[in-house]
Amino acid sequence: MRIISGMRPTGRLHIGHYFGVIRNWVKLQDQHETFFFIADWHALTTAYRKVSELKQNIREVMIDWITLGLDPEKSTLFIQSRVKDHAELHLLLSMITPKSWLEWNPTYKDMKYNLLKIQDLEVQFRGGLRDAVREFMGMIPYKVEDFERFEERLLEDLSETFISALFEGEIEPELLKRLNVSKREFYETDTYGFLGYPVLQAADILIYRGEGVPVGEDQLPHIELTREIARRFNSLYGDMFPEPQAILTETPRLPGTDGRKMSKSFGNAIFFSDTEEHLEGKVMKMFTDPQKLRKNDPGRPEICPVFSYHRIFTEKEKTSQIEEDCRSGKLGCVDCKRMLLTNLEAFLKPFREKRKEVERNIDKVEKVFLEGSERARSIAEETMERVRDLMNLR
Ligand code: TRP
Q: pLDDT tens digits, residue range 165-188?
């Protein structure tokens, strides 16, 4: 089976990426023809303000992929933006994709919903400030030509500052948490590119006539859209694309160190590039059952992030013992974390060392991705020749 998947370059990889995604990719490359790429154009659908970080983020992902066992002898590893044909197919597919299919996409609806919530806040903020601004205007020692316009501008600037400060956590960090809006991107992505995210993703997959797409559950709507777009293309212009299947794999639950989803932006992630000291600091500060205040209080492993790590990094028998001793109050959290630290360090150490070696050979890594992109391009180009033929573009 031909398999394709991509990952947006958000920076160094953490253990959540490994257990959620990379470990499956590494297994698949032994049995299938596999293509894995860094989706840098997709990163721009949200992080278009942060292009200064893009190159470095791509570099970190390249290093981590090689470190974690993706093998250029077995997989084609490449960078999306090096294969321009994805953009051409995206354009052509956008012609046949009804806008409503995209507007129904859950990611897009989430964004819209968040946008509304933030706009509500902004309206409230402005309302509260209007009188104060008016008073302030009375104190300006110059003649203001257009009073109303100037007042609007002041309010505009103030609410802009308010929104920035809100997203940077300077104003009531609880507020965003309560609204469940974590990222500024979600409020600034009412763009054409973001709406078209799934069309680009469909192009990524279809251009290799991919049959299997290993992804997380959150991506299922995108794969379904890809299938619909493929069907529509085939019925309009002739049989061209296979309908790809999502490949879902059971993955262990691995929360961030604070119990929320592991994410770089929450500051709760454990990275393969972390030093032993970093790791110790993070593990010892991990959240545990809030009801277990003293060492000998009984705890509830089922809600404790430390325990979900033990399930992955500690042998089965020991894990059962930990569970029992936590519940009975025999085992304190500090000792429990110490045990975890030992096991986690044993897991991470070989990767940390390999990573350093890979990083020293960055030229070789770049060559891998350059050659991978060439290989990918030759296949993408074949598809595009046929697509252009079918659409009478030649
Ligand atoms: N949307 C995917 C994600 O966020 C990344 C991605 C882009 C992708 N293009 C793809 C995944 C094509 C699979 C196939 O995880």
A: 888 888 888 887 777 776 666 667
Question: Residue 196 class from Cβ within 10 Å (0-12 exposed, 13-18 middle, 19+ buried)?
Answer: buried
- The Cα 312–Cα 92 span in angstroms is 45
Write out the H or E segment, with its range, that includes residue 168: none
User: Ligand 1: distance of its center to the CA of 79 in Å?
Assistant: 12
Q: Among 8, 241, 261, which residue has the most ligand 1 atoms within 8 Å of its CB, making it the best to mutate?
A: 8
Instruction: Give the closest residue (by CA) to ligand 1 atom 11.
Output: 6
For residues 232-253, give the mean pLDDT: 95
Please give the Cα distance from 138 to 393 (Å, whole number).
65
Interval between CA 214 and ligand 1 midpoint (Å): 9
pLDDT in tens, 196-206: 999 999 999 99
Measured from the Cα of 204, ligand 1's closest atom is: 12
Q: Is 269 within a domain?
A: no
For strand 75-79 and strand 2-7, is the pairing parallel, antiparallel, or unpaired? unpaired
In one-letter notation, the amino acid at residue 249 is: T
Tell me which residue has its CA closest to atom 6 in ligand 1: 6
* Domain count across the chain: 3
Please tell me the predicted confidence (pLDDT) of residue 22. Answer: 96
Label residue 116 by pLDDT band (50, 70, 90). confident
Q: Are residues 87 and 201 in the same domain?
A: yes
**Domain assignment of residue 174, yes or no:** yes
**Tell me, what CATH number does 335's domain have?**
1.10.240.10
Ligand 1 pocket: which residues have CB below 6 Å? Answer: 4-8, 39, 42, 201, 204-205, 213, 215, 219, 222
The structure tokens listed for 1 are 């089976």
Q: Where are the beta strands (DSSP E) in the chain?
A: 2-7, 33-38, 75-79, 212-214, 245-247
Dist CA 283 CA 337 (whole Å): 6
CA atoms of 320 and 318, how far apart (whole Å) = 5
Q: If you search the block for the tokens 């160094």, which residue do you land on?
A: 12
- Residue to substitute in 58, 197, 215 for testing ligand 1 pocket (most ligand atoms within 8 angstroms of CB): 215
What is the residue range of 12's domain? 2-98+194-254+361-390
